[in-house]
Amino acid sequence: MSKFRKFPSPEDGFRAVVENAPRAEALAASWIERVRPFFTSVYVLRRRIATTLVAAVTVLLFAHVMFGANGMIVYKQKRAEYEALHRQILEEQQENQRFTHEIEALKKDDKAIEKEAREQLGYARPGEYVYVAPTPAKPIPPANHSAKR
């Protein structure tokens, strides 16, 4: 025997196909008979299956839109946070405006300077008296906690 293997001729391949064709047809027919009831039931139920799949996709899409990373719940939380920050910005701007007016008044108006000196530093004109109200004492907490509810 030689070291080289001989390749089969095309006629040998055709002969093998022709000889095995009846077995292949029988095998395919048996598979078809086994699978035919399943595919027949799928064909009959195709509309129900399609409706169920569409409903499932719709539910998943709804859940994603409502509860996803950028869903409605997160959107509402971000919107509320935005509104709170916007209100805080407006309050800070109003406070800055008030301080700006106070600073301008203290730079130019002698009456504003006098008012701040009297209120903040307790200054008085000659002949005036400054009355300072005493600080209220802290209330003593009750000995027992039966009054609290």
Largest sheet: none
Question: Whole-number average pLDDT?
Answer: 86
Strand proportion: under 5%
Give me the count of strands.
Answer: 0
N-to-C order of helices and strands:
HHHH
**Rounded Rg:** 46 Å
Helix content: over 70%
Overall body shape: rod-shaped
**Distance between the first and last residues' Cα:** 108 Å
So what's the oligomer here?
Answer: single chain
- pLDDT below 50 for ≥5 consecutive residues: which ranges? none
* Tally of separate helices: 4
Structure classification: mainly alpha
Folded structure, characterized:
The chain is mainly α. It has a domain of 56 residues. The chain is built from 4 helices and no strands. The longest helix has 37 residues. It is rod-shaped, with a radius of gyration of 46 Å. The model has no long low-confidence stretch (mean pLDDT 86).
Keywords:
4 helices; 149 residues; single chain; 71% helix; mainly alpha
Quick summary of this structure?
The chain has 4 helices and no strands.
Topology:
Elements: H1 10-44, H2 46-67, H3 72-108, H4 110-121
